[in-house]
């Protein structure tokens, strides 16, 4: 699935490598986890109650919608956490 | 002044009052159920939600057993399932000494129908791998469980109303007395309620009502510290408690873990707020007991006000001084499960004059100088 | 024995200017902030590695932003303030603030506290608002300002408020494609325009400039829009909107939608500290009571910036300074009376401007009229209007807080931030009462979710 976010300006930054569902991906140092994931993917998580895809909403740590799961079971707020090398995320696929 | 006439005035519409109202209305008596605020919003609405017999003293066993039967009929009683589940109550022991205490308790209540199973450390770990391994053992009561107090208590009031009870909320009783034939009770908004009976189920505030009738009792306020996590994947398949106290936890169907223990702070009479120390202590205990959720987030803390007695048993039964007055309060933080049968007992006492459940240990006057208990 | 230094919560324009006044008077305030760098949201600083200058980031406000950042930098570098970034204040009692930093819990004692906690977008629910690709206007702005990204390639902006036009302008200027701007407010009347110009000519001029600039580039702007929805499978693919209640829906293909209806104050800490609140009819918001000097109804709690009343960055700087002067006066420390009086005058003028803006960009009063049962009102707990209606059938006179307890609206992770406006309007509509008749949603600690582990309770 294609990403949501588009890189517009100020994108000449060092690469940063991470994993999504075991697959190696690349983004940039200085990206938030949200930017890194949403330039490559269309959602961050599925909701607990209806399994609906969510990709964040407020980008300022208020809505708590952008929680993304790591392989170690820990969840992070994607909009307010900067991407680090070798982070490993799990993003469930939607059942259409 | 407006006067309302009724058979029974019940002061306090928590689970005890609502249950009493329900059973009285079912018997055809005219019932007025009053609350200073909204029904089921104090201790009955904000408590942990544990529905358990394990851990109660022997004196409460008949009451708890009858309540257990009534909980089994909950949806017929109140029209909703109240999220009630009999998943079991597991009381863990951190030390060998605590395990001995659990074993001793198991012996004491062996004939009470709890089907308690004592588990050693290995058995606890294999059945409940999500628990800390730093335990000596545990005791399981398979048919204990939990429910949602936010839903159950108001629903009980609703069921009482369906059966004929009249509910008056935002109606605080400021004075009540017996004139030899009737009870005359005055409300804060200048109404007079005349009744043949009065039932005092006013929770943490019931001591004031008792004092109005010349039988003040020892009753202190306690403030359980509660919290709830975000929704989490299913982990806990039992309700958790600890021998010696300190923390209790349960996971609801939507995935949130509700937990409690320690004490919040009083800021004014009848009002409590979270205390930083109690919250920190609680979170440390929770992470220690269920290591897998250390990274999960708490989304809400709250507290409530409960009335506690010196021996942690309630005051349940007739007044020692005034005929027609009955009490049901002082459950010391453990009133949710026994609440259903307590209401039935109070209704029985009014309708027939006796209770088929022994309530001698819950006498209102057991702490007075001449009772020999103080 | 010296009193403990005043504590300031928030390192945005309000908090930092308050800190500056206290520092100039010889005090060393504690400044606690959730973010890693000062600036708040409006002057949010980009992460290390980004190279855009202030002009590109903050446009017309760039010199104010730079000045604020420089003032903050100096105070931090010189140790003139006790600066605690990456720290969340999640509860407070009358003696201490409960904080969490890097997963560790702690308490910060205080005798006087200035709350400068800022604001979030105010949002109202609509069909499809939870779809990936739908963001708040503030969120869209942050994507650009903080990450150099656009939220999509063909973007629709909808709602109301000055931010609508500012974000459209910023996005177009950066090279993104804005398909349309849908404003639920009617085009300002001549009278409103004149009043606003008289109140703050520079602000009005900027607004007119943005609109003209957008029009010149062919960005269609619709005013008085009656409603809009997001459609798509798994992500937003189009926006449907109607000109008025009677007209047919028109469709705009897009891959992103940014929405918002002004801002809502982050005033949970004020509430937990027991401050009194009143309902503001103009802004349709519950706001903490403030005295002319910024004091709340609690003697040692002062309120500044958007967290007290929505007013924008300039007002935040002014009210931050004013609170600090009030703290100094209450401590018996000499203040420049002329400065204090001048501040008060500027703040009074700023409030008048704010009233004009509130009138021009009012909350759409009929947004929650006759909403479909399937409309999701609470995004965290996924509660729809139909479920709330069912609960209200059994408890028709329920207040907002009982509605929360029984329907779960507002019980999720965001603690009501995203659903409070919609839930309040919905309840008012269902009960046939004015919005002012809906009680304020009670706040419970923690103010934001906190991790369980790492409870290091220092004695």
What does this structure look like?
Chain A has 96 residues and is mostly beta strands. Chain A has one domain (15-90): Ubiquitin-like (UB roll), CATH 3.10.20. Chain A has 1 helix and 8 strands; from the N terminus they run βββαβββββ. In chain A, strands 3-2-8-6-7 form a 5-stranded mixed β-sheet. The longest helix of chain A has 6 residues, at 33-38. Chain B has 374 residues and is an alpha+beta fold. Chain B folds into 2 domains: 2-49 and 150-218 and 310-371, 3-Layer(bba) Sandwich (FAD/NAD(P)-binding domain); 86-144 and 221-308, D-Amino Acid Oxidase, Chain A, domain 2 (2-Layer Sandwich), CATH 3.30.9.10. In chain B, 28% of the residues lie in helices and 28% in strands. Chain B contains 10 helices and 22 strands. Chain B has helices spanning 15-26, 43-46, 61-72, 74-78, 96-108, 121-127, 149-162, 206-212, 276-289, 335-352, and strands at residues 2-11, 31-34, 50-51, 89-93, 117-120, 137-141, 145-146, 166-168, 173-178, 183-187, 191-200, 220-222, 224-229, 239-242, 248-251, 257-263, 265-268, 271-273, 297-303, 306-308, 315-318, 325-329. In chain B, strands 1, 2, 8, 9, 10, 11, 21 and 22 form an 8-stranded mixed β-sheet that branches. A 4-stranded mixed β-sheet of chain B has the order 5-6-4-14. In chain B, a hairpin with a 3-residue loop joins strand 10 (183-187) and strand 11 (191-200). Chain C is an alpha/beta fold and 459 residues long. Chain C has 3 domains: 7-120 and 264-335, 3-Layer(bba) Sandwich (FAD/NAD(P)-binding domain), CATH 3.50.50; 123-261, 3-Layer(bba) Sandwich (FAD/NAD(P)-binding domain), CATH 3.50.50; 376-437, Orthogonal Bundle (Arc Repressor Mutant, subunit A), CATH 1.10.10. In chain C, 35% of the residues lie in helices and 21% in strands. Chain C has 13 helices and 24 strands. Chain C has helices at 13-24, 54-58, 62-77, 137-147, 162-173, 190-199, 201-216, 268-272, 312-330, 337-360, 385-394, 400-407, 420-431, and strands spanning 7-9, 30-32, 82-84, 87-92, 96-101, 104-109, 113-115, 119-121, 134-136, 149-150, 154-160, 177-183, 220-222, 227-231, 238-242, 249-253, 256-261, 263-265, 277-280, 285-288, 301-303, 376-378, 383-384, 450-451. In chain C, the strands form 7 sheets. A 5-stranded parallel β-sheet of chain C has the order 3-2-1-7-21, with helices on one face. Chain C has a 5-stranded parallel β-sheet with strand order 9-17-11-12-13. A 3-stranded antiparallel β-sheet of chain C has the order 4-5-6, with no helix packed on it. In chain C, strand 22 and strand 23 (383-384) form a beta hairpin. Strand 1 (6-7) of chain A pairs antiparallel with strand 10 (149-150) of chain C.
